[in-house]
Every structure is written in C-alpha cells, then in structure tokens.
Amino acid sequence: MPTAGAADPTRRWSAACVVFVVAAMALRLYWIAGGRWAYTACDRTALVDPVGGCGADRVEALPFWAGWGAVGVGVALAVAVVCAVRFAGRRVAATPSWAAAALLLVVAFPLHLLFEIPAAVAGRPSDWRDLGARLALVAGGVLFAGLANASGPPRPPLAAGYRPVPRWTRLWAYVTVALPVVGWAVPHALWVLDVPFGISERELDDIQQNLSTPAGVAITLVPPLAGLLVLGLVQRWGQQFPRWVPGLRGRPVPRLLALIPAGVVALALVTYGVLSVAVFVGRLVTGELRWADVGEGWAVAATLLVFLGWGVSLGVTTTGYALATGRVRNADAAVRREPPAGPTTADASMTSTFDDRSAHETH
Fold it and tell me: Which of 98, 153, 67, 71 is nearest to 264 (CA)?
C-alpha cells in the first residue's frame, strides 16, 4: 500500500489528467451537438488556405474519430486515470497511463509542430485550430506520462555519476544529427534560394508561391537545430545538469525527461517514413506515379527515406542511452542490496590467536 506522501503526486497528476479528459470530451460533445468552435476541416497534408477552418461551419456530418470515436478514447483515458489511483505503487498502475501518453503524443505528431509553429511565427497563414488541438494533445501526453511516473512502483534513486554510453550509441547519435542537415536543411535551403536541386521547375515554382522567405528559413533551420538535442543522449549534460543551470547544477537528469521526448519523436518519424514510403510505392504500382517523374523529382522521394532513417537512428541512440543509464541505476541498487561484508575466516583466526596470546601473557 502506498503511503499518503507517496500518493500525493499521483493525486495531483491524476487531477490534472481528469481536467484534460473532461475538457476534451466536453469539446467533442459540443461538436457532436452541432457547434463548430475550434473545429477544422482542413487537410493538414495539403497546402490550403486555413481561414475559417476550410469551411468547418458548413460541415454537417462529423467524422467518427472527431466525434464519438474521440469520446470513446476519452473514456479509455478516464479508465487509465482510475487504474493509476486505484493501484498506485504497483506496476499495473502505470501501464495504462504509459499507453495513453504514447497514444496522445503519437496522434499529436509533434514533428509537424516543428515545421508549422516557426512558419506561423514567420507569417505564413496557419490553421490555429489544428495547431491548438495538437498542442493540447502534447500537453495531455505529458500529463499522462507524469501520472505513469508518479503512480508506478518506487524506483531506486538516480546515481550521481556520469556513465559513458557505448561507442555505437555515439556513432548513431552523429548519424541522427547529420541526417536532417544533409537530407533536409541543404535541399530546402537551395529551394528557398530558387535552386531546383532534385525537383522540377514546376515543383520549385509551387514552393516559391506557397512559402515566404522567412517561413522557408524557419522550416529549413528548425529540424537540424532540434536534432542537436540528440547529442544530450551521448554527452554528460544528458545525464547531469550543466553548472550554468541555476538550482539544478550537477544534479542527475531524470531519465524520462530524455527518454520520453526522444522515444516519441523516433516513433513518429518511423511511422511517418513507413506510411509515406507505402503511399509512394502504392502510387508507383497503380501507375499514378511514373519512374520518369521520380527521376525528375528524386529529392522528394529521398526525403521520405531521410525521415525513416532519422527515426531509426534516433531510436537506436535512445536505446543506447536507456541501457547506459539503466546500468547505473541497477548497479547502484545492487550495491545497496549487498549485505555488509563480515570478517573473513583468516581475520577470525588471527583475532583468536591474538586473544590467546594476550590471555597467556596475563597469566
């Protein structure tokens, strides 16, 4: 049974999750009843004018997953909260919450946020409804991850020292940093500069018409800059807060603070890459896309492989970080479980001999 002090974090996180679930379900029920505030009918994969939510007010039949399907997911999320509170301190309490966090973060698809938020700040017309909804999903995923962390079984404290990661983890980390630079930043920078690198003149004209220079610069620079955070998985500052961080200098970095964002982004990248490649191959099979078109715009097809490789390399790097930091905690726990060493047989024999000699000299 968890103590009252241990249960308090679980109650706080569960209360925050309940607020999120109730608000999300209330909004969906409002849409089902006919309201359309914050609802969008825009296709997030198409370059369209998002003003008015692409005619959201004229939508009569609400898609299933935007209405009753989302309400059903909300009920499942509520069950996860109940499990976390009812079985706090056990492993079974955290499992539904971890599943809920992964679902919310994957559905939010944070990779798009890396592109859309800088573009919106730079002045490109953006669908605030879609951005707001996916930011809310990210917040919900973080809340359920916090609930899972608080309601699970107690864990040994983090070790204070730095544990170097394996060499193969460092190599994969460098690949993870290089891929968005070579496979994303370089071609997009050339396209912003009106250089038709790996694409047709028609595709280049579309990019120039739909993408302003500030938005193009933001979309070009944000992914590789965000990719630099991967170095934290193989450097000391990924396990210990740097000295210049006030109040946290030298303290261990919580593993979940690194593992959850890296794992979610890796899963999103791999999912996006696999689905995109599947669609690409399907278009080739049906004849909708010709090999001549692929040859003319080979950079677009290469981008799909970049996303897939980026996700795989990030996943491998995250696994190496998890193994390295996990060994620290396991070793630290083993030391605490090891009983104090008692006197050996040789020590006992020497002590007995010394006592006998002392007694003989006394007599």
Answer: 98
